[in-house]
Specification:
Chain lengths: ~140, ~140, ~140, ~140, ~140, ~140
Amino acid sequence: MKTVYITRRETFNAAHKLYNENWSEEKNEEVFGKCANANWHGHNFSIWVTVKGIPHPDTGFVINLKDLSKIVKEYVVEPLDHRNLNLDVPFLKGILPSTENIAIEVWNIIEGPIKEKGGELAKIKLVETENNFVEYYGGNEPF
Amino acid sequence: MKTVYITRRETFNAAHKLYNENWSEEKNEEVFGKCANANWHGHNFSIWVTVKGIPHPDTGFVINLKDLSKIVKEYVVEPLDHRNLNLDVPFLKGILPSTENIAIEVWNIIEGPIKEKGGELAKIKLVETENNFVEYYGGNEPF
Amino acid sequence: MKTVYITRRETFNAAHKLYNENWSEEKNEEVFGKCANANWHGHNFSIWVTVKGIPHPDTGFVINLKDLSKIVKEYVVEPLDHRNLNLDVPFLKGILPSTENIAIEVWNIIEGPIKEKGGELAKIKLVETENNFVEYYGGNEPF
Amino acid sequence: MKTVYITRRETFNAAHKLYNENWSEEKNEEVFGKCANANWHGHNFSIWVTVKGIPHPDTGFVINLKDLSKIVKEYVVEPLDHRNLNLDVPFLKGILPSTENIAIEVWNIIEGPIKEKGGELAKIKLVETENNFVEYYGGNEPF
Amino acid sequence: MKTVYITRRETFNAAHKLYNENWSEEKNEEVFGKCANANWHGHNFSIWVTVKGIPHPDTGFVINLKDLSKIVKEYVVEPLDHRNLNLDVPFLKGILPSTENIAIEVWNIIEGPIKEKGGELAKIKLVETENNFVEYYGGNEPF
Amino acid sequence: MKTVYITRRETFNAAHKLYNENWSEEKNEEVFGKCANANWHGHNFSIWVTVKGIPHPDTGFVINLKDLSKIVKEYVVEPLDHRNLNLDVPFLKGILPSTENIAIEVWNIIEGPIKEKGGELAKIKLVETENNFVEYYGGNEPF
């Protein structure tokens, strides 16, 4: 079975803070440090979306990258780019926007649309800085 | 078992187009868009070849990178670099040169020579642009 | 005078070959090597366009990057992306598409539109591979 | 005169928005687009600080990078990292935090401390995204 | 099970040579080539440490990156940075410092401290140059 | 005058230490810190060599990159790669191998060979880590 994994990158620039409303300011400061800054900070995020499948004999494609790019732009970049991840994003409402949590919610949002195009979402990689990123496999076995 | 995965990168610059000869021009344009441009386009490709194994007690090596580099240069870079992937490459004859298909064929070409040097090919990653790449594990479980 | 230089990057992927029609095949091979391959090769090009000026008091902008990006996309990316630089590009007709020559012609094409937006083109940097690029200052003093 | 230019990079992650308080919301939206988002957005900024001089015979140094790094961390990274550039930074109070304006103000802040260490500030390069950056030479001739 | 993988990068610059004391100089030269240079050579190494886990409901964290960074700095960067990997590092004594072997020893050194912070070490990626790196999963299944 | 600047990158991996033999160990430690480590440390260096000129009408070239690459490999990479910059390099004998000093000496070594190929050396950029580099213009005006 010649399963191939294809990955598309998109980027977005956003503000956020890490802050637990149920905690005191001191506790937030202790756990989240400068990431809890009341007036926010921000990042250039890169999101790498991986889809698995067998290349189609007519196209050599696992999925058409035009379709994959369009999905990621519509469902991820449009709502997140130049936004505040704590305040502005419907699908992140009530969720502490750590890189981990954003990756999970992005998976939930784009798994369906990718399936509609015949693709199977395999991995979300969300890069926050040149020094840290997270990977999420939808609760499936990693690769 | 202290299995380690070692990866070597090589690069090549090539022209190609995505075009299905059995389709009308309109259909090609619809599916492949500007990638179907009759007069070709091109990319700086990076190929990352991963070999798995247990480091040898005498060398600390899974495989000697000099050997791995030599194999990738001889079997991949030499036939693909500064070539037309639709016209010039014996091992891609009759194959639509999508990134997916190139990765599969590269696997088939170098798996044997790597084995002869005592290595076990584990993964091919082929990067086409800073925004997209494919990964192929020879039909084995991914990692 | 608080002159600031602002730079915008765009990318395009194109095919070309380096070939002098007035020379024999042997001479072309000798001078251009594999870059003369008859069936073309290609690259992921990055173009960095630098505009100089004093930030406007109302905006803090030397030039609005939306405008600069739009100009580069319309005049450079649109005609060059997924094209053959020897065959497909009106403003490169009759010009040997070395990185040097492309940079000069891009300058000539976008200097005017940038001026219309109140900007002064200062530099074109054209990156062909991770190992080589050219810089052109319109014949002015470099910086 | 064996003048050498040495550059040190530091990074900071910050929130900001581009918004002119003297303008209507419509005008802000028209000029700054999504950069005017009321709830902020953010970036991973890189700042490259260049100092010129003749290498000292005893050290081979134009300036000790430990000193240069310490200055940039104290005067730039400390006040800007994980901050809101519109609200949190004393030396940016009342200044529209475009990349251009930040670069100018950083120059003004660190020129003196670098001089005290025997160095001559030559250039500030401030990178906002992988697609745009500004350069400022203190009003001197660029290079 | 919403297992997420989070990765932190740290860097260190070190000297080493690849040399087997039980071999003749000729044999060393034959196998290790210029890497056996008697007077050493060196690299800018990047180490990427991946920890797996389920994001904590209070923090959204698999592990606090401040803790992970502190562990990697204390146990890896401090003993390896600006050191000679053959001579200066207690936990590499008697070990041929190939990239493979360093990765294995780093795993052994930091697995415990990460566990103490409630994390589970999942992967070490050690990058030696832009053209080669190794990955080690502690002898577990790779991903 | 359509002067274009063309740049070629080559890389080398080397060991060195920063140590002034005329100073006490304490003084060396104070000034150079961990860079003075007795048993050396090392880096992946990148050297960017810039040549200026007017593109030749027959080739579109300021200088043939094959020639430029060959010169840099012969005069710089060959003597420096996998070497000890304090001990192994004839043209660095007696010179404290700071990045600044290496750049100056590289200029002196390759200016002549580039001139013989009809090129004019304009700039040496030597990158030591992702956070620092030096630029040298041969004592001429920078750009």
